[in-house]
Amino acid sequence: GFRLATRTRVEGAGVDIADSSSIGGYGRVMFDGTLSRGFGRFAAAVTGAAGTGVGTVTPQRLFYMGGLHSVRGQLARPVAVPGEPRVGDTFWLGRGEVGRGWPMFRTVAFYDVGWAGERADFASPGRPMSGAGFGVSLLDATVRADVSKGIWPDKGWRFDMYLGGRF
After folding, report:
1. pLDDT of residue 59 exceeding 80
2. Which residues, in sequence order, are bridge partners of residue 53?
């Protein structure tokens, strides 16, 4: 049958800057959900995620798109690049995966799309980042290796090997 896994994360911090007269802070909230289903030797999963920050979000707590845990095939960058949806106080992400095989050994194809930027641009973000690829999962996703290609803005190839994949 279908399986739905969700997570909600909330964080915040207050800052009292002793050498100035300002007191500030920030808050962040993030939601994600994955709907998955097995079909014999096939399995499919769709993931959606979104989050936003309020207050003065520090550079360390901004949302960064690109890389293994967001848009595979894209590089995460430490600073915003004009015209590219990489960094901001708000984000959204969509991922799709289809796998074939058995839990001990499975081949997987995937497509990711995501955006990060200013909250004011959330409803009309322009072109989002995207990437696609294929991978191999071993031991019920305990070990996974992916080859991904950036579609936009980066068009390069990446190889990632990691523990704990979706399937």
Report:
1. yes
2. 28
The model's pTM is 0.89
Grouping H, G, I as helix, E, B as strand and the rest as coil, residue 16 is strand
Q: Report the SS3 class of residue 30.
A: strand
| Rounded Cα distance, 55 and 27, in Å | 7
Q: Are 69 and 145 in contact (CB under 8 A)?
A: no
Tokens of 20: 């100035």
The SS3 assignment for 49 reads strand
Beta bridge partners of 130: 113, 152
Cis peptide before 103 (omega within 30 of 0): no
Q: Which fold has domain 2-163?
A: Porin (2.40.160)
Domain ranges in the chain are 2-163
